[in-house]
Design a protein that fits this description.
mainly alpha, 2 helices
């Protein structure tokens, strides 16, 4: 079989290979490595900027959420205070209305009692006047007639009947 193994390189081919490799290296470095490296650097910067913006946005969201929670808590406290104040104010109005109603009812009651007392006094005066009038009429009748005990009884009975008729 004839395999020729050459251990010593061919110098012109070696130099041509080195020159070609060097030219290829500079060509690739200039047209491929630099743009790819720049593209990767830009992409890395873009990603880092996105991550930074995301973290800032998350911080802002957390701050806004915290502020929202604080404002909601404050609003709840204010609403509780307002409701409590309104409830107290309503209770005050209710108690004032009850007191005024009691006072008005007492005044009306006292007025009614006074009117009843005046009516009673008028009725008593009228009754007294009638009794005096009746007594005077009876005395006049008795004085006009000479009577005996039978006539006195009949006259008193007639008077009672007349009184009953006048009150019916």
């Amino acid at each position: 079989m004839g395999l020729d193994i050459h251990v010593i390189p061919n110098l012109p081919e070696l130099i041509a290979q080195l020159v070609a490799s060097t030219i290829l290296y500079f060509f690739l470095r200039h047209f491929l490595f630099k743009p790819v490296t720049e593209y990767l650097a830009k992409r890395k910067a873009y990603i880092e900027e996105g991550v930074r913006k995301t973290e800032e946005a998350e911080e802002k969201i957390m701050m806004i959420d915290k502020e929202y929670d604080e404002k909601m808590l404050e609003a709840k406290k204010e609403s509780t205070a307002i409701i409590s104040g309104a409830r107290n104010y309503g209770e005050e109005i209710k108690s004032k209305a009850v007191e005024e109603s009691k006072l008005l009812a007492k005044q009306e009651y006292d007025k009614g009692i006074k009117q009843l007392e005046n009516e009673r006094q008028k009725a008593m005066k009228s009754l007294n006047d009638e009794i005096v009038y009746i007594a005077l009429e009876a005395a006049e009748k008795v004085l006009r007639e000479k009577t005996d005990s039978e006539k006195d009884k009949k006259m008193v009975q007639d008077m009672i009947n007349d009184l009953e008729k006048s009150y019916e």
